[in-house]
Specification:
Blueprint lengths: L1 E10 L2 H8 L12 E7 L7 E6 L4 E10 L3 E8 L2 E13 L2 E12 L1 H5 L3 H19 L1
Antiparallel strand pairs: 1-7, 2-3, 3-4, 4-5, 5-6, 6-7
Length: 136
């Protein structure tokens, strides 16, 4: 299991962050890695979707956990494994929120994905900054 996480703390209400972060169809407007994304149904555990990374092929994902307003998890199948993305929204003070995106890799794909981890970290950090701008 390979794991890393990125986080940001900024001025925003948790409900506003949740609304934007779970609006799959509009990810491409602020997430620098996304070109297209869709969710086939409501945002809930068990829902499936599809996302295309900029400059890469697209692929399916499934929402595997939702704690409304606080946490959601997606899994993306890969050859020889899967990539798990955990998203956290935590109020830290009046009008401030901490957002965290964790990346976990299960299976044989982990060694290969380590090569892409620096780029993934940069893109997640840029996307969290863009999320902050979108909410300001």
């Amino acid at each position: 299991m390979y794991l890393f996480e990125c986080e940001a703390t900024f001025e925003a209400e948790p409900a506003a962050v949740w609304r934007v972060w779970t609006d799959v169809a509009h990810w491409h407007e602020w997430d620098v890695s996304k070109e297209i994304a869709r969710l086939d149904g409501p945002f809930q555990q068990g829902a499936s979707g599809w996302a295309k990374q900029r400059g890469n092929l697209g692929g399916p994902f499934t929402i595997t956990a939702v704690d409304a307003g606080r946490r959601w998890v997606t899994e993306c199948p890969m050859p020889l494994g899967k990539v798990i993305f955990e998203h956290l929204v935590e109020p830290v003070a009046e009008g401030r929120v901490r957002v965290v995106k964790k990346v976990e890799v299960d299976g044989g794909i982990g060694h290969l994905l380590r090569l892409f981890a620096p780029k993934m970290r940069r893109e997640i950090a840029e996307s969290l900054a863009a999320l902050e701008l979108r909410l300001s």
